[in-house]
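ok trying again, last paste got cut off:
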Amino acid sequence: MERQAILRLRDGKEYTGTAFGADCGISIGEAVFNTGIPGYQEILTDPSYEGQIVTMTSPMIGNYGITAEDNESNGIKASALIIRKLYRGPVMAGRITLDEFMKNHGIMGIEGVDTRSLTLHLRDHGSQNAVIFTPEKRKEAEERLESFPLITERDLIDGVSVRTTIANPSLGEGFEEAPANPAVHFAVIDYGIKKSIISCLYKRGAAVTLLPHTATAEDVLAVHPDALFLSNGPGDPALLTDAVSLVRNLLGKMPIEGICLGHQIITIAIGGRTEKMKFGHHGSNQPVRDTITGRTFVTAQNHGFMTVRSSLSPTASIWFENANDGTVEGLYDDTLRVRSVQFHPEASPGPEEAEAIFDVFMEKAR
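nice, full thing came through this time. structure:
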C-alpha cells in the first residue's frame, strides 16, 4: 500500500509524494541535488553525504538494482533520497532493488516529487535543511526542522571515520587488494573515505595505513609513511581545527596530499580559508581546467564548500579551476610539499579521465 510523504524545506516550500524505503516517519538533513544519471548506489554510500538528503535530477532511479560490490562504504550514509520516479521492475540475478536496499539500511525516500522544480528552487535559494515526513508526523517534523542545526554547525566526521588504525584495509569484492611489494606507503586520515580512493592507491602499488580522524601528528609519524593523504568527507572544514593542526604540524616534513575535504583542510592549514557555496557541486559532469596544461576534462564532484582563491598565500598555486564558475578545484605549494584536488579523481560514479591524478600523487610521494 502506498504511503503519502511530504518534503518540507526550511524556507517553507513543500512537495508531496510517496514514501519508499524504510518506514521511519521522519528523515532530516540538508537538501542538495546531484546531477548524475547513473551511480545512485555509490552516491548513497559515499560518506561525504553524511547528514544530507540527496535529490537526484535524473527522472528514474533504481533501474539496475543494487549489488554489494558497488558500495563505497559499509552502508547508506545519506540521510534520505528524493526522486521523481522509482523503478519497481525486476533486476538482474544477484542484485536487490533500491527500495529493498533502503529498507535494509533504515533509510527513507520520497518519490513523485517534481525534482526539476525542486532543483531549480535549491539552485536559486541555496541548499538548505529539509525534512521528509508522513502526514501524521507533521507537527514533530516541523518542530525538528525549526531547531535542526545548519551543516556549518555540525561536525559529521565522527560518524564516518574508522575508530582504530588499520594497515592495508581489505575493501571486498570488486576492489583492488593491497600490493605485495608496495612502492609507496601512505598514512591516510579517514574523514569518511570512499573505498574507490584506497583501491586507486592499491592499483598503483601503494600501501595504506588508515588512521582515524582523531590521529595526531605523532600518530602519523609512528607508522613511518612516505606521505600523508587526507580523504574526502562530509561537513564544514572550518570546524575541523584538530585536522588543520595535524597538517600544520607536518608541513614540510613529508608530502601532504588530499581529495575534497582533504583539499579544504590543506587550504586552511596553509593559511587560506574556505566558505560555503550556495548549492555546491554534486554530480559527475563538472568540467575542470588544468592550469598547467590548459586541458579541460570532466570530473565527479561532491562538495558544498570551496577554497577562497584570494585567501591563498603567494607560494600556493592554483592547479585546477572549475570551467563553469572559476572556483578553485586544486592547488599545490612545492615549498610546503602539498598538493590537492577538490574533485573526485576516483569517480565512482563518473568519468575516469581524472584518475591519472593518482599517478601524480604517487610521484610526489616518492
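cool. Residues 115-125 form the longest helix (11 residues). The chain has a mean pLDDT of 97.
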